[in-house]
Amino acid sequence: MAITSERLRQTFSEGGAQEIYLEIKAEGDFLGFARRYVFDEDFMVARSALWGLTKASKTELTQLQVILDELINLAMQTENSSVRRLTLNIIERLEMDEDDLRTDFLDFCLEHMVSIKEFPGIQSICMKLAFRMCSFYPELMEELKRTLETMEMDYYKPAVKGVRNKILCGRLKRM
């Protein structure tokens, strides 16, 4: 069965996402698929496309490296939390060098990692991405650690607490 917007609009299960991934893998065109569906205005299409892509290996996702800025823009601009979380998950698995550092994205990650209104999955991924970006600059790393130390942990879920503790204890490694 071919991948279409209509099919993606109706993909609601882990199994469906896995099927999408296997079809993308068979085609070998992760970039073409992403360009066709990830940025769709229908959040259900974008969400299902992103969900399928999260099943890909890090090696397969390297095809998406050329659209890193577009993915960052999507994560920062979407109003849909599922699309945001899945996009951030993919961004986290892509290479990010010092030259890729975008202060607007760093600010976004710093804001969303501490926002108690944000979902824990998004907070955790934002924290990991902020750590990654700050690791290029010692002064930014110190600022990140100060921010983490001042977080009132009673308001956060275990996933967020775990990432925070790994960063503060030096157990989270730069990816």
Summarize the structure.
This protein has helices at 5-9, 14-27, 30-37, 43-53, 58-61, 68-77, 81-93, 103-114, 120-134, 138-149, 158-168. The chain is an all-alpha fold.
Radius of gyration: 17 Å
Distance between the termini: 36 Å
Q: H/E series, N to C?
A: HHHHHHHHHHH
Largest sheet, described in full?
none
Instruction: Tell me roughly what share of residues is in helical segments.
Output: 55-70%
Q: Count all strands and give the number.
A: 0
Structural class, judged by helices and strands?
mainly alpha
The number of helical runs is 11
Average predicted confidence as pLDDT: 94
Strand percentage lies at: under 5%
* Shape, principal axes of CA atoms: globular
Which residue ranges are poorly predicted, with pLDDT under 50 across at least 5 consecutive positions?
none
Question: Layout of SSEs?
Answer:
Elements: H1 5-9, H2 14-27, H3 30-37, H4 43-53, H5 58-61, H6 68-77, H7 81-93, H8 103-114, H9 120-134, H10 138-149, H11 158-168
Structure description:
The chain has eleven helices and no strands. The mean pLDDT is 94. By secondary structure, it is an all-alpha fold.
What key phrases describe this protein's structure?
175 residues, mainly alpha, 11 helices
